Predict the 3D structure of the following.
Amino acid sequence: MSEQRKEHRDRLVVLSFVSVLLMLIYGPLAPWFISADRILYDTFASNVRTSALENALIISIDPARKSREEVFGEYGRLLETLQNQEVGRIVLAEPPVMDATDELPGWAAMLSGGTAVFVPAGHRLADVANRTGVFVLQPDSDDVLRKSRLWHLQGGNMSPSLPLAVALSSNDYSADPRVSAADSEIYLSNYTPVDRVAPDEILGPDYPAKALIGKTVFLDSAPELVSAAAILPSGQFVTSSEIAAQLLAGIEQGQSIISPSWVRAMEWLAPVLMAIMAALFLPARNRRDIILLTVVTILTVILIEALFLLIGHLRLDMGRASIIFLGASILSWWLAGAERKAAVNAYKRGSDFLAAGRLEPAFAEFRRCSPTEMVATAMYKLSLAFEEQAKPERAEAVIQWMRKTQGPSTPENKFSLGGKKGTPQRLGRYVIDRKLGRGAMGAVYLAKDPRINREIALKVIPIEKEFEDEELEEARLRFFREAESAGRLTHPNIITVFDCGEDKHLAYIAMEYLQGVPLTQFTDPKKLLAPNKALELCARTAEALDYAHNQGVIHRDIKPANLLYSLRQDLLKISDFGVARMTDNNRTKTGIVLGTPMYMSPEQLNAETLTGHSDLFALGVTLYELLVGETPFKANNIAVLMTKITTEDPAPVSNRRPGVPPSVDAVLFKALAKRPQDRFTNGAEMAIALRNCAKYAA
């Protein structure tokens, strides 16, 4: 499936998902999404700045151990005293409970005095009171009181709530333009305490006569905390008088939290916008980008809600919008992982088919992969395999697929030809640009395959000059056998061999070109890598060697110069597998092949039969050098060097460099064991050990 088709498919999947989610958040799952919004609101509500009601106090009669008649009597004395003291207004947010048989004439006289007394509508005292207001507390399903209505429909008429009725009766009250019949709900956040005075103080002879003049007094028989009527979003337990006082303060001081009609429209629009954004921007991204975009978007949404609430005192529900985007992000993250896993599996199956010579199934599997550099490399090998089977039309189909997915090719004439002294301009079909360096078996050039406009590294050996006539044929067979064995290796940490041939009396191997540097650049004591980085790079090398050994290929010359590292891509690849041979179990002696003595294992120096353990020994020497800047075995001549390698143990590296944990010494001791059977069983085991050490390295 092409990248464009996959992106289109993922967009449709995400769009379908968020569409269903939108229907659910306003349908069957609405209560769950409302709960998510409440969590956000409660988190910020406790931080909303509120002010206490000015010039107010609360008087609570304690009904404990008092009869009903005693409570009524104390109410009457307090009302009489407050009216005599010329208080501004009296609010009975929670009057005493009365029976239908209770007589009201005495109460009527107290409620109709000069001071305005406000009574909740529906209470028996409302029948004789001049001023009433609806006071109903309606907590949410989780028993938290978050909102209160300003207007209530009663008997076909709109009646004000008790706090609003108190505010409207004041001559000094200037109606808050934000509060209207259309915006009939205000939201609670936290409670700023109002002064409390005990009834005994008010009724006592020592209370100042003028202390109550003009005050707003809330009178009830509900002591603080003991008679809490509700829980606020801030977690505070409050009585009815405290709720009424806070609502009245918000109305009169213009600090009420409201949700105008335009804000409610935004609440409905925000989830839809989030759904569209998710469908547009999340599909076809990698998992890291999806996580980053999700975190930034949700934090932005939450910040907007917080600013609306804390600064504008506007209630904006963004919980649903956040969950919509989060749900789409989780789906996109899963799709990205599933696509990546499918591509990895397809690539592995294609590589297995290619190795088995089943080219058509390999082509089918590779076409399911994303057009990465690794897939392009495998496709290139596939086109060459089709050519070898005399199927040029299939080879051309592979090339056409690569051109379609990799983009248009640059014209061949844009490639700068060689022409420098000693550098051939062309070998086979490959056009040579410049010399890159010299390897163990010859020179290496940067070249280009004009068929697909791919840069390659071309390893060239003057085979006829290097060998005598009687050895030439055997050398030629060995060269192509080595190239064939290296060409079987397809691993992200191994330089891929594409092709081999002979032209102009020169043998050549066409290999993958990596714009990197050899690890020899990091063996200078002044330029060493961080210990954890060196351990990680060697762990990748060990995994690649494990793969090669399972394919029956031994490298025989592992050293920093043959480990290429791209800093920009953080990519490491083993080069020069051209000197490796296919393991031949029928031979008892392989002889010492090309290699560097200071990195050789004891069995390689002794010309014994080699196994993959020899490469692990060389990797141990390489790690030692990357950590301290020198090899573990040094000598002035080859004889002394061989003696040290076969008999001496290296000095511990943890004593030579800070930041290297002692566990590295144990890994190196095992990797550099003199006997192959005492080393790590395989490269995978060594890689695990190295990564465990890296966790504790600096």
Remarks:
- The first strand starts at residue 56 and ends at 60.
- The radius of gyration is 42 Å.
- Residues 408-422, 580-595 have pLDDT under 50 and may be disordered.
